Amino acid sequence: MSPITFLKEVREELSRVTWPSKEEVIEATAGIVIFCIVVAVYFWALDFVFSELLKLIIEK
After folding, report:
1. Euclidean distance between CA atoms 40 and 60, whole angstroms
2. CA distance 25 to 27
3. DSSP state of 21
4. Which helix (H) or strand (E) holds 3?
5. Which of 2, 24, 30, 52 has the fewest beta carbons closer than 10 A?
6. Is the pLDDT of residue 1 over 90?
7. How far apart are the first and last CA of the chain?
8. pLDDT in tens, 39-51
């Protein structure tokens, strides 16, 4: 396959792609950011609880 044929096929394939709207991209991005924040807070809370428990165990 020649590079020119390949590029023509790539262009044809890209024209068939259903691209998301701006609103869909913003909504998906917001969902991902919120999910990441929730997971970060969850792990921060776990880390805090376990570190405090470890401090209690070590002090005794």
Report:
1. 31
2. 5
3. P
4. helix 3-16
5. 2
6. no
7. 73
8. 999 999 999 999 9
Helix (H) or strand (E) holding 2: none
> Phi and psi (nearest 5°) for 43?
-70, -35
Contacts of 20 (CB under 8 A, 6+ apart): 28
Identify the residue whose tokens are 């890209």.
Answer: 14
- pTM as predicted: 0.69
The string of DSSP codes covering 1-60 is --HHHHHHHHHHHHHH--PPPHHHHHHHHHHHHHHHHHHHHHHHHHHHHHHHHHHHHHH-
- Structure token digits, residue 50: 């376990």
The pLDDT value recorded for residue 8 is 93
Q: Residues 13, 5: contact at Cβ < 8 Å?
A: no
Structure tokens at 46: 């776990």
